[in-house]
Design goal:
With about 300 residues, the protein is α/β, with parallel strands linked by helices. The chain contains 12 helices and 11 strands.
Amino acid sequence: MYNEKWLSAIKVVVFDMDGTLYQDHAYLERYIRYLLEGTEHEGETEAAVRLGGAMLAGEHPGGFGHFYHTGDDVCLALEGGRFVRGYTWADGVEIDAGAYGSYASLAPLLVPVGDPWSIVTALSRRHRLPEAKLLAAFERVRQEMLQPPHRFELSTGLFWAIEALDAVEKKSLLTNTPPASGAEFLGYMGIRHLFGDVIFGANKPDGLHAYVAALLAQGYEPHEILTIGDNTWNDLHPVKRLGGRTCFISPYPSGDPEAWDLRLTRLEELEGLMRALQQSITRRSISDGKDRAEADRQEVQG
């Protein structure tokens, strides 16, 4: 399943948090309801919930992997830096995207729809809601996710596998989640100690690009860096542009046309990757004679 040659070269693993180290499939509906509650658009809540569900299921052609255009209320598909297809937000009817040109020319008007959280961000921009309303809905649903009955399930097997991954030189975590909520979630999961660098409010994708560029300046080679995340625009594209390795993990379909080194759907698969990564690097070290103590142990056990 895995290419041991490139796995064995990895020295740095950069993790996303939300949707990558845990998977919650229930918060989206509540998040949408809290956003629209008490606004002039509250009557559109059920339609918004249905749309969110359609995007999760891959039943809306303009779902994950697209960009929401806040001015024209459409979703646009990007390929090679230019928009090649488009769909109306409300019903997914295809439109001609040829006139939209390049990403660079439209960036201020675009919301990358890369994960369930970004659906609600796009919805907020669609209805011109105050940023404070989005933040209040975000904080409310985040608190619920740490308490019964909405508390998300911990993937202890994955956490153990990350902890056992001691053959790499660095394990880092970068998340766009604000510091207060990010720290609470890491505390609930009990995994802060697994990572060296932990950066909240990381401003991905730009922040991830800057972080990896700093690693390269320290002497790491691009192929020695692996990034893992569920939002292709934020978590993977910046690293791939710099030549690094990428692992996309998400249970949801994506319209992003980019090819990644690995495509996973479940946390159990990510756990398996962590174990395969440890084994590949360890075997390489023994064969290169870089860890003779470990080689001796292998010989005694064998």
